[in-house]
Design a protein that fits this description.
- By secondary structure, the chain is α/β, with parallel strands linked by helices.
- It folds into two domains: 6-96, Translation factors (Elongation Factor Tu (Ef-tu), domain 3, Beta Barrel); 108-254, Nucleotide-binding domain of ferredoxin-NADP reductase (FNR) module (Rossmann fold), CATH 3.40.50.
- Helices cover 17% and strands 34% of the residues.
- The protein is built from five helices and 16 strands.
- The strands form three sheets. It has a seven-stranded antiparallel β-sheet. A seven-stranded mixed β-sheet has the order 11-10-9-8-12-13-16, with helices on both faces.
- A hairpin with a 3-residue loop joins strand 5 (61-62) and strand 6.
- The longest helix is centred in the last third of the chain and has 13 residues, at 197-209.
- The chain is globular, with a radius of gyration of 18 Å.
């Protein structure tokens, strides 16, 4: 195992999924630490000082050659990344943070993703080897990603959209309520979730109501990725904690979910 979390990787593919999202396939050029589902990487997208800081991206999937990252193009850094071509080299720091605690053999994992939140939980579903009940929702069909790939690895999948353009009309929280109420045979459910803040807050509330253990991966802006700058601190029941260091995965009841 590499003793350093710094390594270089080469772009093998930078494939557009739609107008605002790409799937980046990287092959590591240096020894790389083995990542766990829920961890993330800091990527240096510029060789100069603009932008100066690395950008944080969830591990999407481990591959034989390296890793894949699913990312949204929403600013200068990700726009630079989108334009990078096959063969270009990147500097990375990672894997970082704490991943998802794996369920025990007698637990039923309920994996919930909202939109780009699938980037964080996909490798977890893959590692669970067709044991996961997956609930995947978005505002509309074009914001659902890699559903064909997802179809090869889940136990059950429910897709939903706010406008009903794909799957069930409604939110993943609606789907979760229906599932828990109507599935008496589910043994010791445990929830793993990543998505918008409002979705995670609603899932935490539902999990508490049903006495289900739930883990949430928080999506906060990160400047350093190693806990030094305190820029990603969130309020918890035991004080402020750093998403990059103590997270990004937290027990959902530990977070103080503010509007």
């Amino acid at each position: 195992m590499s003793s350093s979390r710094y390594f270089r990787a080469e772009i093998r593919e930078n494939r557009p999924l739609n107008g605002n999202h790409n799937l980046l396939t990287l092959a590591n050029l240096d020894p790389m630490r083995e990542p766990q589902p829920g961890q993330f990487y800091m990527l240096q997208v510029s060789k100069g000082s603009d932008p100066l800081l690395k950008r944080a991206f969830s591990l999407f999937r481990r591959t034989p050659e390296g890793i894949q990252i699913l990312y949204r193009i929403k600013g200068k850094g990700t726009s630079i990344l989108r334009d990078m071509k096959e063969g270009a080299a990147l500097d990375l720091l990672g894997p970082l943070g704490n991943g998802y605690p794996m369920p025990s053999d007698d637990q039923s994992p309920l994996v919930i993703a909202g939109g780009i939140g699938i980037a964080s939980v996909f490798s977890l579903v893959e590692k669970l080897s067709k044991k996961a009940f997956v609930f995947y929702g978005a505002r509309l069909e074009e914001e659902l990603f890699m559903t064909d790939e997802l179809g090869k690895i889940y136990k059950e999948l429910v897709v939903c959209t706010d406008d009903g353009s794909c799957g069930v009309r409604g939110t993943v929280v609606d789907v979760l309520h229906d599932f828990v109420k109507n599935r008496d045979g589910i043994q010791r459910p445990v929830i793993y979730a990543c998505g918008p803040h409002v979705m995670l807050a609603a899932i935490a509330k539902a999990a508490e109501a049903y006495s289900i253990k739930a883990y949430a991966s928080l999506e906060e802006h990160m400047a350093c990725g190693v806990g030094a700058c305190l820029g990603c601190a969130v309020k918890t029941t035991s004080g402020y904690k750093r998403v990059c260091k103590e997270g990004p995965v937290f027990d959902s009841q530990e977070i103080v979910w503010q509007p």
